[in-house]
Specification:
By secondary structure, the protein is α+β, with helices and mostly antiparallel strands. About 40% of the residues lie in helices and about 20% in strands.
């Protein structure tokens, strides 16, 4: 069985009391969710009341005991006391985490199985925003005495980054660091929620239009993969059993699960809240995770889920090839990191399956990283005295520059932007006086390849 993707090191800030240090963690496979905007949380006062009411209701119905109720209530009260003393960014970030817990509570989503992760998130945010440093968006952090990885999402506080945690588990498995792997897995197990009867490692913040709690095929697939690997390496049948129980998310449709069936097989969604969004890299990593789990365990359910996802992948992979670059989803092109990531996943499937569709597509995607874009100027004349469109056509996502010069070489208009393939235009708000000009359109793709400039004469007509 092919190994996981090459492990890479990344800095993580670790909070020790009131000071931080930098620790370089190794991860294997994907570790980050796509860079979508984390939505701002509207804070409605009084903060914490819906969460405490939900805890009271869980106690009253016998779903939790008094000790659990009191411990979690104390977490909220400590966070509220800190919130009232904080200002600026620190206050906003801690408030957003409390507001997310309130929103889940009001919606009836604060179930007993989610309490461990939700209240750990509240408490860790209280610790960080009262003693830790301010963070840049996307910074990863950890805490002294813990192996868990958190990530800062501006406007949402620090959040458990489950994909990174299971990517870290894969790296520990790959290097056979048994003790560290066991310690990380022991911290991750209690953070699983019951999602539709299946253990799931969820996200508890607003992201890309989704409200908490939500889950993802890429993180769940990596969880299944790394837990199956840990079970085999550590000789822990309970970990193998947990990996197999976590397959349930791939058997259920959204918004509970990630499975969407069609004539080709089953597509595994990157977000349970986005049933029409088909992100190829997430589906492929889920399929790889299911393959590895089925090979390690011999489980027929894992094998069937892999077969359904692989059948889908084999059918749809060609539609994500534009002939010059890869598509991220059904419409938009990948950025460079996701182009490289999906190429890696295709190579991994090629090694596992030896299917031409994966091997050949991976080879073409690699070639595209050295293939210059092709750009063509489309506008020959514009009329002066009114805003004009300078049109061009492009074959792959690139930074495209447009320059208009007089015959003497003086620039009268220049602009640039990153745009996707297809037909586009830039607006020239005040065209120069009537006459003949030189129009040049340039393009540089995300990998740094430069197109042959497209040049033509541009005639500006009288207004």
């Amino acid at each position: 069985m092919a190994c996981c993707a090459h492990a890479s090191a990344a800095p993580v800030l670790v909070l020790h009391g009131k000071h931080t240090t930098v620790r370089h963690e190794r991860f294997a496979g994907p570790t980050n969710l796509p860079a979508q905007r984390a939505a701002k949380t509207k804070i409605r006062k009084p903060l914490g009341r819906p969460t405490r009411d939900a805890l009271d209701a869980l106690l009253g119905s016998g779903q939790i005991d008094q000790a659990e109720h009191d411990a979690d209530t104390a977490v909220v009260k400590r966070a509220l006391r800190a919130y009232r003393k904080l200002k600026g960014t620190r206050r906003a970030e801690l408030g957003a985490v409390l507001a997310n817990a309130d929103a889940m509570s009001a919606a009836g989503s604060l179930t007993p199985s989610r309490l461990e992760a939700v209240f750990l998130t509240i408490d860790r945010n209280r610790q960080w925003w009262t003693t830790g440093r301010l963070l840049s968006s996307g910074t990863r952090v950890s805490f002294s005495g813990s192996r868990l990885i958190w990530q800062y999402y501006r406007g949402q506080g620090i959040e458990l980054q489950m994909l990174a945690n299971f990517g870290k588990a894969n790296a520990l498995w790959s290097s056979k660091r048994r003790s560290s792997l066991r310690g990380l897995v022991e911290e991750l197990i209690p953070l699983a929620s019951d999602r539709g009867g299946s253990p799931a490692w969820e996200y508890y913040f607003r992201f890309g239009g989704g409200k908490p709690p939500w889950s993802s095929s890429i993180s769940q697939g990596t969880a299944v993969q790394s837990l199956a690997r840990a079970g085999a390496l550590l000789k822990e049948p309970a970990l193998t059993d947990l990996a197999l129980r976590a397959l349930g998310l791939f058997q259920q449709p959204p918004p509970t699960g990630v499975r969407v069936d069609d004539a080709n097989g089953a597509f595994y969604l990157i977000y349970t809240f986005a049933p029409t969004m088909r992100v190829l890299n997430a589906h492929l990593q889920a399929v790889i995770g299911l393959y590895d789990a089925s090979q390690l365990t011999g489980d027929p359910t894992a094998a069937a889920l892999f077969a359904a996802g692989e059948s889908e992948a084999r059918a749809i992979v060609p539609s994500y090839d534009t002939g010059a670059w890869s598509l991220y989803d059904q419409r938009s092109e990948s950025d460079l990191s996701y182009h490289e990531l999906v190429t890696t996943f295709l190579r991994n499937l090629c090694k596992r399956m030896d299917q031409p569709v994966y091997c050949d597509t991976a080879a073409r995607f690699t070639t595209y990283e050295k293939q210059p874009p092709v750009v063509a100027a489309r506008t020959a004349r514009v009329r002066g005295g009114r805003p004009a469109k300078i049109a061009f056509r492009l074959d792959k996502i690139s930074r495209v520059g447009v320059t208009v010069r007089t015959r003497g070489g003086t620039t009268v208009f220049s602009t640039s932007a990153v745009v996707g393939r297809g037909s586009h235009f830039y607006r020239w708000s005040r065209p120069a006086k009537p006459g003949l000009y030189d129009l040049t359109v340039t393009a540089t793709d995300l990998a740094g390849n430069r197109a042959e400039p497209s040049q033509r004469t541009l005639r500006v007509l009288k207004g």
